[in-house]
Design a protein that fits this description.
The protein is mainly alpha-helical and 123 residues long. The chain is 48% helix and 7% strand. The radius of gyration is 25 Å and the shape is elongated. It starts with 14 loop residues before the first strand and ends with a helix.
């Protein structure tokens, strides 16, 4: 079985790879050997790291925004020390219409646990 030559170096290719990933609507593919594919992926990683560093220098906030929930965390801690379960705290917050920290549909015992583990409570 003869393989197509690699698009980059001409060696026998291992398979075809999409120039633009299919998930992003790519339709064109090229044959690449394993070594050229590795170089392509490492080049992409380098380019991505450089672009993120430049964005950070421009002041672009990378990652999630910090959560302004210290007062809510302290309130939940007081509720917990008064003997309420995490489920009871979640029910109270849901009844009051308090939005969750990560835009979840409602408060659950596990989201309350995350709130109670905030660093503001440990200081």
């Amino acid at each position: 079985m003869s393989r197509e030559p690699c698009f980059e170096c001409g060696k026998p290719s291992s398979r075809k790879y999409y120039v633009v990933p299919k998930q992003r609507g790519g339709t064109k593919s090229v044959p690449l050997c394993a070594s050229c594919l590795g170089l392509t992926r490492s080049d992409m990683a380098t380019l991505t790291k450089e672009a993120l560093a430049k964005a950070k220098e421009r002041g672009v906030q990378l990652g999630r925004a910090p959560l302004p929930a210290d007062a809510l965390a302290l309130r939940a801690q007081k509720m917990r020390t008064s003997g309420m379960t995490r489920q009871a705290i979640a029910d109270t917050l849901n009844a009051e219409g308090v939005p969750t920290l990560r835009d979840a549909e409602r408060w659950t015992p596990s989201t309350v646990r995350g709130l109670l583990s905030r660093s503001a409570l440990r200081e």
